[in-house]
Amino acid sequence: MHIVAEGHDPTVGFLHTYNVERPAFVFDLMEPLRPNVDGVVLNFVQTYTFHPADFTIRSDGVCRLNPVDSEACGAPGCEDGRQAFVA
Fold first, then answer.
1. pLDDT profile of the chain (87 residues), mean per 10
2. For the whole model, what pTM was predicted?
3. Residue 85's pLDDT is what?
4. Nearest CA to 64 among 72, 73, 54, 74?
């Protein structure tokens, strides 16, 4: 990771609490991108018509969204999710 090469400890954050098993500083660095990501996700949820087959319910009761075919999605940002977040 680039931040480690720069001499930073990825587990010590300013906005997120310290946890040796979690890269709090990395989460801090992602915060400025949160509005962009939230916007793409919100737009997707508002424009995509979900069907029961889009979801899987695990044996422990957790409901998960199955991977969505980017061509079938049709929502802006679905054509290349990685590019949609880099604005």
1. 77 76 82 88 86 91 81 56 44
2. 0.53
3. 43
4. 54
Q: What is the pLDDT of residue 79?
A: 54
Beta strands in 1-87, from DSSP E residues, in sequence order: 55-57, 63-65
Question: Which residues share a beta bridge with 65?
Answer: 55
Query: What φ, ψ does residue 47 adopt, rounded to 5°?
Result: -105, -20
User: Which residue, 69, 20, 74, is CA-closest to 44?
Assistant: 74
Two structure tokens written together for 51: 């069907």
| Rounded distance between C-alpha atoms, residue 78 and residue 87, angstroms | 14
The answer to whether the Cα torsion of 75, 81, 10, 3 is positive or negative is negative
CA distances (Å), origin 36, targets 2, 7, 75, 84? 22, 28, 15, 8
| pLDDT score of 62 | 93
Amino acid at 53: A
